[in-house]
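Recall the central idea of this unit: under ordinary conditions, the amino acid sequence of a chain determines the structure it adopts. In this exercise we apply that idea directly, starting from the sequence alone.
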Amino acid sequence: MRDSIKAQFEVLDERFRSCGGDGWMERLHTGCRWTEGPAYFPAGRYLLFSDIPNDQILRWDETTGAVGVFRHPAGYANGHTIDRQGRLVSCEQGDRRITRTEHDGSVTVLADSWDGKRLNSPNGGYTFPTAGAGTSGSSA
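Accordingly, the structure predicted from this sequence is:
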């Protein structure tokens, strides 16, 4: 399902009134409770995003417009990013870990603890240009 809807913005801080935003948004999919964590893969022309309450990562295909399940269960994954080798890095809130999806589909745990304590609820990942991955919004 793909359609355009009129964008409506509520300005909460007057300093942002001049930003305006786009007049229209394109809806790519319906049927999720709430979605977050988009990560676009230009080489494959697809977008991965999480439907957190339904514990799944969905995949939108730019060429066909089709949406399908990429992974279920997904550890209630949220903050996604892409590393330099084109692999998905995800913050899994339910499993309290940061993972990397390898090109063959297998999942590698990058971190599940800090200083001997399990991660609380990692959310909002990023990768560094030189090496490694990080997260924000989590505490051990």
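The mean pLDDT is 87.
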